[in-house]
Amino acid sequence: MKITIAAVGRLRKGPESALIADYLDRFAKTGRGLGLPPAQVVEIEDKRGGGMAAEAELLSRVLPDGAAIVALDERGEQPTSPDFAARLAGWRDQARDVCFVIGGADGIDPALRARADWQISFSRMVWPHMLARVMLTEQLYRAATILAGGPYHRE
Ligand SMILES: C[S@@+](CC[C@H](N)C(=O)[O-])C[C@H]1O[C@@H](n2cnc3c(N)ncnc32)[C@H](O)[C@@H]1O
Question: Quick one: CA torsion of 50, 51, 57, 61, rounded to 10 degrees?
Answer without folding.
Answer: 100
